[in-house]
Request: fold
Amino acid sequence: MANATLSCSLNTTETLKSCTPSKPSNPSSISKVRVVVRVRPFLPQEISARNGNPVPCISILDQDLESPEEVAVYLKDTETSRKECYQLDSFYGSEDNNVGEIFLREVSTFIPAILNGCNASVFAYGATGSGKTYTMQGTEEHPGLMPLAVSMVLSICQSTGRTAHISYYEVYMDRGLFLRVQRRKVAHTGLNDVSSSSHGVVVISVSTPSSDGTAATVSGKLNLIDLAGNEDNRRTCNEGIRLQESAKINQSLFALSNVIFTLNKKQPRVLY
Reply:
């Protein structure tokens, strides 16, 4: 069963602590990037391949009562004999409609900070076919994190007199493309019929007038990023341009993982 990892980061040039939605009891344990996992349901072809009785390979271990904000996830894959354990900030199972819950618990809590001048980023990271685009964009019946965030911000701005600027762009082969979502770069691979080969980004910028009557404004920004899936070309059987795209995708995702590692280790310099 594949999964998409949702990562959230909040930053500001002023005080991070005052803008952080939740504060652990030990301030030194605060991570700049939270890691949240959503496990997507089995696809019809996966159910058929397992004779209609698919067995999840992920289970949750007992939570540490001393650290209730973390959860341990145990991965045991009978097909590959993989046995691994990961410590996460939050975990969501394979229910069909839990994206709304993820938004309320993991994303909406950032919006008050955005209104107060902070910047935050939420992005979906995972392998091709793991459900990232469904989580971020969703469907007409079940909107994803992007439309849910846009809807909430616009509603707040309408009632409070704030101004919102919303833009969408893509990064393809390390180049920016200002394209509509319907034209997003996709292609067939051995693992996914409509694998995204570009990173899609929605940027919501909010300006709040100063309360003291001056012309100064407070600006905050929320970045919502649907990353292209990292790929193992031995399994995707990519060739030609798809192989070049895959190399660029994996290269950029590796750079991103290094940035996240550096931030959470609180190292003084981010190598980017």
